[in-house]
Design brief:
Elongation Factor Tu (Ef-tu), domain 3; 6-stranded mixed beta sheet; 2 helices; SH3 type barrels; 2 domains; mainly beta; 6-stranded antiparallel barrel
């Protein structure tokens, strides 16, 4: 099921004394922040809009200055909050790549029709992602997100067809 909003980063710390924050980007392309005028943060289960004033880069992080956040104390209050955008602000994904939030909860079946369970988590390993599938008895199955294994992904109908590698599932 398509998610309406996407988490694109997490504020991990303050930066300097002028209200800037250090953001861990949750996107393959951190420069995508340059295309944004604003983001949401989720505070007390409410979305709050923050206008982006400035962006710079530091190692693997993005340094962002938001309008109205002008001191280290202001910035400190944003620590550990997620940066969220509306789906229509998302970058176009290459073919056969997906937003993690669209995969979570997806039903996974083998090419022979056996229900394996639902995707609980996705984690990167460097060369490829791994899908964590939990079956009805709570057992976890790890499926590599590679072309030979993932046969079909249907975001609209919320299912995936896989051909597990030999010995992957007992």
């Amino acid at each position: 099921m398509k998610c309406e909003q996407l988490e694109i980063g997490k504020i991990i710390n303050t930066h300097g004394i002028k209200g800037e924050v250090k953001v861990l980007p949750l996107t393959d392309d951190p420069t995508r922040y340059e295309e944004l005028d604003w983001v949401y943060i989720k505070k007390d289960d409410k979305l709050e809009k923050l206008i982006i004033e400035n962006i710079k880069y530091q190692k693997n992080n993005v340094i962002i200055k938001f309008e109205g956040i002008n001191s280290m104390n202001d910035a400190e209050k944003l620590k550990n909050l997620m940066l969220i955008i509306d789906r229509d602000m998302a970058v176009e994904l290459p073919e056969n790549t997906y937003f993690i939030c669209d995969l979570i909860g997806m039903e996974v079946k083998t090419h022979e029709g056996e229900l394996l369970g639902k995707i609980q988590d996705v984690f990167p390993t460097g060369s490829n992602d791994v899908y964590v599938i939990k079956n009805s008895s709570g057992k976890e199955i790890l499926i590599p997100a590679i072309k030979d294994v993932i046969l079909e992904v249907d975001i609209d109908n919320n299912f995936m067809i896989v051909k597990p590698l030999e010995g992957l599932i007992e």
